[in-house]
Structures are given as structure tokens and as C-alpha cells.
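User: For documentation purposes, I need each entry recorded in a consistent format: the amino acid sequence on its own, followed directly by the corresponding C-alpha cells. There are two entries in this batch. Please keep commentary to a minimum and don't merge the entries.

Assistant: Recorded as requested. Entry 1:
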Amino acid sequence: MRRPVLWLLTVIVVILSGWALRATATVMVPVVLSLFLALLVYPVDRLASERLPSWLGWLGHALALCVVLLVLLGFAGCLWLAAGQLIDRFEGADYRELLPSIDVFEEGEADTEGGSMFREVYSQATESLASAMLESIPGFAQNVLNMAGTTLAGLILVLFLTLMMLIEAPRWRAKLETAASKRASRDLENSIVVIADRLRRYLLTRVVVGLLTAALYVGWLWIFDLDLLLVWGLLAFLLNFIPTFGSMIAGVLVVAYAFAQKDPGTAFLIGTGIFAIEQVMGNFVDPRLQGRQVSVSPLVILVVLVLWSWIWGVVGALLAVPIVVAVVILFSHIHALRPVALFLSNECTMEDLDRMTLADGEKK
């Protein structure tokens, strides 16, 4: 009787925690994002501090913040550039200017009744698709540009929190050693080291895979003379940071635009090529670059993507995998929660889990 009650209480706590995180998104998103950023750039801060005199230690914090700022501005710049390209292309345009295939169908004579019906249905479908694009894409792109003020305010808060975390890191380590047992403090410190290392490798892998995917997208679409190549390349790169769903969204957008601009056969060929690109990158290139460093169950990744997208929106989708990786590593260092870490991971034995989650000094 005690075990069912325990499981029921666990489910209730998880549900309430999800609602609490969603309700406090304004506060929690900058804090969690700053924490991950501080972990990512801490080696830069530590390396600079070790090589400089103590009275110049602040230069390490400044250098680390510059790295964070460059990364965030790089992502913001990609979004800004893609949004500007979409606005220039669609704003004030007539859908017939975007769909040369409609004019061909209207000028040509129908050889058969079936061919005439197909042309009519295709023309109506492309007109509807183009009208939807003209109504939604410029508005969406303009919303991205209008978010600049809010994004700037949030960026300042994230940078300030990251700076404070870097400054306070040595003090919190000393506090932890004083407040907790020697083993507990050592386990927590090792967990943080492993989390930071896995996150850096994960981010580096996503950057490399994103750049390769974007280059393949642009090369393949260039063959079919599809315009907005820069936009599709940027979208392929940025959406690559959202596992599974990001590549699906990028591919669907390209195929829909190709269907509107070209013909069904060309759109099918473009979609086939994009599907092949995603399969090669997802099943061969990505695993070989990433190795076993971020070994999380694919089913768990899908579930946490949906969950964190509901809790924190797009930012939640971006942070979903880093969060679950951190949870797996932390739980693997807590004896009572090691079975949970095993089920969340993509491993089958505790030995394999330890190889993924233990620091080099902990492995025997």
C-alpha cells in the first residue's frame, strides 16, 4: 500500500512542478539559461583567472561574458536576417508574382478533361497556399523583428545573472564543502563538471551538424533554382537545435514553398532530397560526431520536447535536451535515483550509464 501512495505523490509533485515552472517562466527561464551559459563558459573564466594576476581577475569574467554575448548575438542576428529576407520577399507582393506555374496552366489548353481538372485543382491549391503565405509569413517575420526590445531586456538580465554566477562560483563551492558531507559535495561537483562537459560537446555537435545541414540545404535547393536560399539555410541551422521537430518544420516549410513556386514533381524531388539529407545527418553524421556523450533515450527526448515546449515555449524546446541530460547525470550520482537515470538514458546497464555520466576521475 505504501508504494502506490508514493507513486501517486510523485505524479502529483511532477504535475504541480510543471505548472509552477510554467507560471514562473518569466523568472525561471533567465535563471536556467544563465546557469547553462555559466557552465559552458566557465573554463574561459577559469583559464583567464589562472593566467592573470589576482587584481586582473575581472578580465576573466569579462572575457567569458564576451563569449556569451557573441553567441547570443549570433543567434539573434540569424533570426533578424532571416526575418528581414522574408519581409522583403513577401510584403506587398501579389501571389501571382510568386507562382509562375499558375500562368502556365492558364495559358495552356487542356488536352483532356482530366488534365483540365488537375490544372484547375492545382491552381486553386497553389493560390490558397500562396495567399496563406502572404498573410502569415510577413506578420510572423515582423513579430520577430518587433521582439528586439523584449529580447534586449532579457539579454541584459541573462548576462547579469551569468556574471554573478561566475563571480559567486568559488564561494558556493566553499559553502557546499562546509554544509554537506565530503562525499556529497564531491559527487555534486563531479556532476557539475560532467554536465558542463556534455553540454559543450552537445552544443558543438549541434553547431557542426547545423552548418553541414544548412550547406546541404542550400546546395540542393540551388539546383532547382528556388529563391530565399539564405532563409532556408538559416532556418535549417537554427531549427537544428530543436531535435526531431526542428528538422521536420524546416523541411515542411521548404517543400510547401517549393510546391507553391514550382510544380508537384519539383516539390516532390526537393522533399525527397531534404528527407535524404536529414536521414544521413541524423542517422550517420550526428551519432558519429556526438558519440555516446549525450546518450538519452529517443522516446524520452520526444516526451521532454513536448513537455518543455508546453512549459516554456520555444525556449523550452531549445533547453529540453540540456535539461534532461543534466537530470540524468545528477540522478546517476544519487543512489536512490540511479534507476530513474537509467530509464531516461539510452543505456541498458549501470556500467554503461556510469561510462556516460561519471567524470574521468571517478571511472575505475
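Entry 2:
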Amino acid sequence: MAPLFTVGIPVYNGMPYLPEAMDSILTQPFDDCEILVINDGSKDGSWDYLKSIKDRRLRLISQENRGLTPTLNRMLEEARSPWLVRLDADDVASPNRLKLVAEYITRRPDSGMFYSRAKLHQQTDAVSLNRTTEATPPELRAQTQAGYLLSICHSSVVLNVQKTLNLGGYRFNLHIEDLDLWWRMALAHDIVFIPEVTVAYRLNSGGICATHLGELECEALYAQYLLLSQLWNKSPQAYLQVQAVLQSFIRQQRLRYRERMWKAAIAMAAQEYAHAGRYMLAAACSDPRRFLERALYPLRRPAKIKIGVSPEDFKKSGGRLWPSASPSLWQNHPETN
């Protein structure tokens, strides 16, 4: 009999955090699952560590390095259960996560996806709660239909395997494989919010969010562009063809604010509180209104956290984004898999 769900953990050079991530799953007293770990060509001690684990629920696969998107798609294809519980190799699952996931799957078996709150590792919820779109399935669908993306922590997600594969799985070698999937799922199936923290995530100074935030902002706008293309029945262009237009949508004030807040969060995660305070002060000076909203978020969480700029911005540049002779996205598109 197939297990209720598969815990899927992609690993690429996961040390030294991988043991804590694995322990957070292996120590949970829940047997109706498999733990599928795909080692994506790690060059550190990750594979040797994984082979040393003795647990009947654990299934290991090792492959040459392919990157995150192909690895996630292989995880969907390899899963021996109807559901995939996501966890990254440097994140930590809450002690009751598997039990809670089982309860929600039993309660809402026809859903396409579940997700939850998440927080910064080893920090209290009051200062580190991830800004998440907290809403009902119809509200999530309505926000998506209005042209905005959902804010969801990837490691908190539980995917219906077959429904995700039917939607085309993960796409793109950009850093939007999650944002791109969320909008497709929201339009097609119910996405159910679990109002608890089920995962703690890590930040580090060498991560893509800390070093290339402007690039990430532009790629997120591309995910919104793909959504609007779907809603408006237009043929989207490849990322490189519209990158310059999307970059013009980025507000430099907001970008400076986000860069400083990311640095503050990284310093806080490293328990460098003086540095964190200085970055927070700089963020507050760059955008006082946005900083106040973020400071009040743990106390007064708005349900409609959304990602993206006004769809009107896209309409104003419609001639450049959707030229009449635009080729199909899926023809000669190097960013797709």
C-alpha cells in the first residue's frame, strides 16, 4: 500500500545544516510516509552523511547535478504517494508537522496544495514570521485572477502530486519555479492555508536573496507577466526579451528597503543584533511606511499579502510586452525545461 505522503528533500551541498533538517523529520513519530532525498551532485559530505542514516522510511537517490527545477520534477515523478511534503535541506520542520499535514489531507483530500506560516530559524515568531498570504481558497483564487502573485514559503508546501504534474510541474531555470507554480495551482485547484508555523527557514549572506535581490525582483515580475498573459489570453515572450521592460517597473526605493531588511534578517539569524538594528534603521529611513507595516505585521497580519506591481503597469507597456507577432513562449525558449 502506498504511504499517505512523501517528504521530499532536494540536497545540493547541504552540510552543515542537512543533519538538523533530516533530524526534524526522522524524529517525528509518523510512519505512514516515505522520506525521499535526492542528492543533486553534492560535492561536500552530504551523500556520505545520507548513506549513514538507518530508517526504513528513507529512500535515497543520487544524480549528477541538474539544478533545482529538474530535481523537484524528478521528486514528483519518483514519489510513491499521492502527496509531496516539501522541505529544503537547510530548513527545519516543526515537531508536529507530519501529524498536522496528515490531518489536513484527510480533511481536504480534493485540494491541490496546502501551505502554512513559516519563521526564521531560531527566532521568535514576533520578529521573524514570514509575510504569507493568509486566505481561503476562493480568496487566493480571486487574488490570482486579479493579476497578483501569492506569498508562500516553498518549504511549507504540500503538493498533490498528480495535479501538480498535470499542470506541467515546475518550470524555468529562473528563481521563480515556486511563484510560477502557485498561480497555476490557484487557478485550477483549491489551495488550503494551515494557520500554524510548520517550518523554520534559514538565511545566509551568500544566498541569492541577499546578493541578487534586484535580479529576483525582475524574475518575480516575469512570473506575474506569465500570469497576466494567461488571464488576458496573450502569448508571452521569453524572459530575456522582456527583461528590460520588467526592470523599469522596479521601484528603487522599495528595492533599497528590501535589501536593507534582508541584511537585517541575516544579521538577526546570526545573532548579530547590533548590525541588525543598524540595517533596520536604514530600512526605516528608506521607506518609513513600508517599515511600519512590516513591524506591525506579527500583531496585525493583513490577509491579502500579494506579490507584484499593478497590472496597469503591464498594460501601459503592452505593445512591448505582447507584440502582435510574438512567438509562443514554448518555442525556442531556453529558460524552460
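Summary note for entry 2:
The radius of gyration is 20 Å.
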